[in-house]
Amino acid sequence: MRATEVPAIAGAFLFEPTPHADERGSFCRTFDAEVVRSVGIAPDAFVQDSLSRSARGVLRGLHLRSGAGEAKLVRCSYGRIFDVVVDLRPGSPTYRTVATFELSGETQTTLYVPAGCAHGFQALTGPADVSYRIDRPHDPAEDVTIAFDDPELAVEWPLPVASVSRRDREAPSLAEVLQSREG
User: Fold this and answer.
1) Which residues of the chain register pLDDT less than 70?
2) By C-alpha distance, which of 45, 183, 81, 171 is closest to 118?
């Protein structure tokens, strides 16, 4: 497994496994505590694993947590997704930068999203399974959502949006979220 720093988002990393394939199929390690530790991330800090399954065109996000935030490891375990990270850490050198990735079950690459960054994705296939390893127990009172179609962010989602939750559809703009965090 190899760790690669993501230049567009300070503190973000891609963890790319080494697949082993033969006539039976394939095998790869999708998490390695030593590799995670080698880039300064505490592997034992993660306390919750979650999984979402989405139909093609489903959009989830853009989500983040208030308070101490939430760091997460995100991996598309089946299918393909268009993944988006927005750095919303005021002191970060990449503050307000948007970075996009394609994650797939073929590569099993894992993206580390630092606390304070918004995250979302769109399923490019149906189904697309996304695995999350999160560093804090979920507290719905800390959930923050930003409009996925905010013109300031100008994310170019690759497919027409087939479905989105009510929470995501009614989310405030980035400007509104930043204003409420300052006030």
Assistant:
1) 183
2) 171
